[in-house]
Amino acid sequence: YLPVALGVGGCIVLTGTDLSAGRVVGLSAAVSAVLLQKLDYSRRLLSAFPDMPIALNIILAILAGFLVAAFGSLIFSFLTITLRANQNVTGLTLTIFGGGVANFAHPELFR
Questions:
Q1: Contact 66, 77 (CB under 8 A)
Q2: Among candidates 102, 68, 38, which has minimal Cα distance to 76?
Q3: Distance between CA atoms of 4 and 10, rounded to whole angstroms?
Q4: Could you give the C-alpha distances from 107 to 33, 97, 104, in angstroms and in order?
Q5: Are the C-beta atoms of residues 87 and 21 closer than 8 Å to each other?
Q6: Can you give the pTM of this predicted structure?
Q7: What is the DSSP string of 22-83?
Q8: 70: Cβ–Cβ under 8 A, 6 or more apart, which residues?
Q9: Are the C-beta atoms of residues 79 and 19 closer than 8 Å to each other?
Q10: What is the structure's pLDDT at 88?
């Protein structure tokens, strides 16, 4: 999480705030945690996920977390830089969107 902390620190110094960084880190951590669940866990979220060697499972979880974080940052950058949307509005929108996606994907976790 050091790269995210340094990136947000640079963003605060140069332009203001980045409200979406926490949600991006949270979503990437959640995706990694879901992929790293034990196969014999009774409430496993991805029960149809194949049984793989632990090293491959760890690498897959790291890559999936990285891709989720990169995609969230790409959306934030596109909306803020290309479309010139306000970064605070974009950050709050991504925060709400991320919570909605997590709630839609796993509604039993948000009861």
A1: no
A2: 68
A3: 10
A4: 17, 15, 6
A5: no
A6: 0.72
A7: HHHHHHHHHHHHHHT--TT-TT-S-TTSPP--HHHHHHHHHHHHHHHHHHHHHHHHIIIIIS
A8: none
A9: no
A10: 82
Q: Please give the mean pLDDT across all residues of the chain.
A: 77
The whole-number average pLDDT for the span 36-54 is: 68
Distance separating alpha carbons of residues 95 and 81, to the nearest angstrom:
18
pLDDT of residue 63: 93
Reported as a pLDDT band with limits 50, 70 and 90, residue 52 is confident
- Cα separation, 66 vs 110, whole angstroms: 24
Place of tokens 């974080």: 69
Tally of CB atoms within 10 A around 60: 15
Provide the CA 72 distance to its chain's centre, in angstroms.
7
Residue type, 105: A
